[in-house]
Specification:
Layout: E1 2-4, E2 7-9, H1 18-29, H2 39-62, H3 69-73, H4 77-94, H5 99-115
Antiparallel strand pairs: 1-2
Helix pairs in contact: 2-4
Length: about 120
């Protein structure tokens, strides 16, 4: 709350982006390894692994391998997608990548392709 021209104004606390919250959380989780040289490579390999797990779970439920009981008994693809996002956040954090800028770049690229398809 502050006084502005004799009028009390209730100030809303500026909220941080969800990325900021996630990055702070990951700072605690990765504090002992985030500055090691091999950490980025480990994150890339982990991301590839998570994409494989998500693909297997998705295909078991919706795709080409409906009888893959092992994949159905593992975590659902929705959970695996969360694992992929965390892998991306971790890599972006240690490489100082602005995810908002990267997402906007990709969204604009998709929009451009949709509006001006290759002939």
């Amino acid at each position: 709350m502050c006084l502005l021209n004799g009028i009390m104004v209730f100030m809303q606390k500026k909220s941080s982006s969800p990325f900021g919250y996630y990055f702070k959380y990951l700072d605690k989780v990765d504090k002992d390894v985030k500055n090691t040289q091999e950490f980025g490579s480990m994150l890339i390999l982990g991301m590839v692994e998570e994409i494989g797990e998500m693909s297997r779970a998705y295909l078991a439920k919706h795709g080409r391998k409906p009888r893959n009981v092992a994949a159905q008994n593992d975590e659902a693809y929705e959970y695996e997608l969360g694992d992929i996002l965390v892998s991306i956040l971790r890599l972006a954090r240690i490489k100082n990548i602005n995810l908002h800028e990267r997402l906007m770049y990709s969204l604009k690229k998709i929009e451009k392709r949709r509006n001006n398809p290759k002939k």
